[in-house]
Design brief:
The protein is α/β, with parallel strands linked by helices. 44% of the residues lie in helices and 13% in strands.
Length: 659
């Protein structure tokens, strides 16, 4: 890509350093971070040379500025894909406004979400109509209308004052069924050109803002959907940054696969209801959903090695027959119908076509995919995912010629069709050693660096592993774990984030220790995550007990968090169907290739909750003696963690916490 007025052509590294010095001097802390400079220089070089880049940037590096500053200075269009909403909010609410203020030019940005996150004005109009749209009110699995009229009234008022239509901007969260009645997913929307409200559609407005913005912030799920849709969701861009890169493989795998459960049939029935009423088709389709749930319930969690079972295939065939009939009925509706009816017909055809396509796919799954029953017995669904996500990315991102996609060559003459960026940056505080191979990033076109961390972990943090605890697989472990947690929490004066590998252990530990420790115990699920973290931060001596959702993406600097406990090494479940298939593909080396890297990355993420500022001090207690005793893999795990001083002595821990 040729760009005129490229500010980094002559002395790019010097320009990056000067820019970062100007930016950091404007920060309240005024910190100069060598790792941030190293990362920013590498990002600038990768963009200019059209190479990919993998950066491990420890906590405190300031990686957001390190990838945004050089990209914006080079006047490149950037998409930032994040794994967490917290990081999206940080970028849009803090980092990008700061950059816009201190760069030499104005910077524009947009946050873009999936279509179902935005209020659909056409759906709202249909609800407010003459009653003909009442069948669109949303049905539960039993076919009952379950939409709150009070909430719909609230949403109508919201539509008149909101500039975004974003569900996240609502002051009161509507029920899932009410929101489903006033929103559409990508499998339902007929497109702006076929909708009477296409011009003022909130989702389309968001896409238009993204098309002209310098930086577009999305979640990694949406980027995966962008790739799976042949690059038709996001605007053309030069650079994509995957922040929290360790999540990319799993997210892309999920978004390039499919799920098929009762909800899909109920949703199709909801879209068609009130428009098509012949031969009981809608009731029949809802019945198919109920039958599918019953057939899949007993197989929840099971891998389907031989494809769809015969009884499930028969149910899907019955559903497909009814969907074909609905399509035929929809096409018979007079072409001279009102704009509203025409839109609803288009929505039915879009939704039903997508569902038929997925039924056909699970009936004849592509090679190198894995099929299983996802969810629990109450909400089971067929899931299909690629066995090798790297092969998927090789087809969709690294090898665009294979799919007919174009590479951006000149933004002044950008093609109208789908494009892929020429530079991808992957960054995280913990980058799996296998990332390049797992994602099949072309080895001749990628550079990898580790810029370290500005924190002095050896003096700020202590890693404790009590070797006297029983093996976590033994019956005696639970009682011993609770005793160890009690004395650690008391030694820390509360101020503990207790992380667990299962909800059951988290609940049991919270129940057992309430009353045994003299500090408040907060539990995951008591409040929305942001409010729960705020309460934990404000109530300095409180403890927060949580599971996997809190192992990353929360930031509690200062005295409220002085102890992080981890109940077990977070090895993935042996019966996970997708990982099970990948282990079989790898063979005898599966533990070291699949399980151990995943456990090491997640353990490092949990450990990373402790030190969030250069003045923080505290202890990470891994309450699994295998970290200290298993010679075959303990160093793989320890070497993935920050370089903390290590101990097996509780008295040393108590003394450190007392300081």
């Amino acid at each position: 890509m040729r760009h005129s007025e490229d500010p980094m052509t002559d002395a790019p590294d010097d320009v990056v350093d000067q820019l970062l010095q100007r930016l950091t001097s404007a920060l309240p802390s005024g910190e100069d971070r060598p790792g941030q400079h190293e990362m920013a220089r590498a990002v600038g070089r990768a963009i200019r040379r059209r190479r990919h880049l993998v950066v491990q940037a420890g906590t405190g590096t300031g990686k957001s500025l390190a990838y945004l500053a050089p990209a914006l200075a080079l006047k490149r269009k950037v998409v930032v894909a994040t794994a967490t909403k917290a990081l999206q909010d940080q970028l849009a609410g803090k980092e990008l406004p700061f950059l816009s203020t201190h760069l030499d030019r104005e910077v524009s940005w947009a946050v873009l979400k999936g279509r179902s996150n935005y209020l659909c004005l056409q759906r709202l109009d249909e609800l407010a109509g003459d009653g003909s749209g009442q069948g669109d009110l949303g049905l539960d699995v039993a076919g009952n209308s379950a939409v709150s009229e009070k909430q719909v009234t609230m949403l109508k008022a919201f539509a008149t004052r909101t500039a975004t239509g974003d569900r996240a901007d609502l002051e009161v969260e509507p029920s899932e069924r009410t929101w489903a009645a006033v929103s559409v997913g990508p499998r339902e929307c007929p497109g702006a050109n076929k909708c009477p409200r296409g011009e003022d559609c909130f989702a389309e407005q968001a896409r238009r803002r993204a098309a002209t913005a310098d930086v577009v912030v999305v979640n990694t799920h949406l980027y995966g959907l962008h790739l799976a849709s042949d690059g038709m969701i996001l605007p053309p861009h030069d650079v994509v940054v995957f922040d929290e890169a360790h999540e990319v493989a799993d997210i892309i795998s999920a978004t390039t696969g499919l799920e098929l459960g009762a909800g899909r049939f109920v949703s199709a029935a909801r879209v068609a209801a009130g428009l098509i009423a012949e031969d009981g088709l809608i009731d029949d389709l809802e019945t198919v959903g109920l039958r599918l749930t019953a057939a899949l319930a007993e197989r929840a969690g099971s891998r389907l090695r031989r494809g769809v079972p015969d009884d499930v295939a028969a149910i899907l065939l019955a559903g497909r027959t009814r969907l074909d009939a609905i399509m035929s009925a929809a096409r018979k509706i007079e072409s001279g119908a009102s704009a509203e009816v025409t839109t609803r017909v288009a929505r039915v055809l879009t939704s039903v076509t997508a569902l038929i396509g997925d039924i056909d796919t699970v009936g004849n799954p592509p090679d190198d995919t894995v099929m299983w029953v996802q969810g629990d017995a109450e909400h089971p669904r067929l899931a299909l995912a690629p066995l090798d996500v790297g092969r998927t990315l090789d087809e969709l991102l690294w090898n665009p010629e294979a799919t007919g996609l174009e590479i951006v060559t000149d933004h002044d003459q950008a093609p109208d069709g789908p494009v892929v960026p020429h530079t991808a940056v992957f960054t995280s505080a913990t980058v799996p050693a296998t990332l390049v191979a797992d994602l099949r990033i072309p080895p001749d076109h990628v550079d990898s660096i580790d810029v370290g961390t500005p924190f002095d972990f050896e003096h700020q943090a202590l890693l404790y592993c009590p070797v006297t605890l029983p093996d976590p697989r033994k019956e005696a472990y639970r009682a011993a774990l609770f005793d160890e947690l009690e004395r650690l929490i008391n030694a820390a004066g509360g101020r503990t984030l207790a992380l667990f590998t299962s909800h059951r252990m988290m609940r049991d530990a919270a129940d057992e220790l309430t009353g045994r420790v003299h500090h408040p115990i907060l539990r995951q699920g008591e409040l929305p995550k942001p409010k729960l973290v705020d309460r934990f931060t404000d109530e300095v001596t409180s403890c927060l007990f949580a599971t996997m959702g809190y192992w990353q993406g929360i930031d509690v600097p200062g005295p409220s968090l002085s102890l992080v406990t981890i109940d077990k090494i977070p090895f993935p479940r042996p019966d996970d169907p997708l990982l099970q298939a990948r282990r079989e593909a790898v063979g005898s080396n599966a533990f070291r290739t699949i399980d151990l890297p995943r456990a090491a990355t997640l353990l490092a993420q949990g450990t990373g909750r402790l030190i969030r500022h250069r003045n923080d001090r505290g202890v990470v207690a891994v309450l699994d003696p295998r970290l200290a005793t298993q010679q075959s893999y303990r160093w793989d795990l320890i070497n993935a963690l920050p370089p903390m001083h290590r101990t097996k002595d509780f008295d040393e821990v108590a003394a450190f916490l007392a300081q």
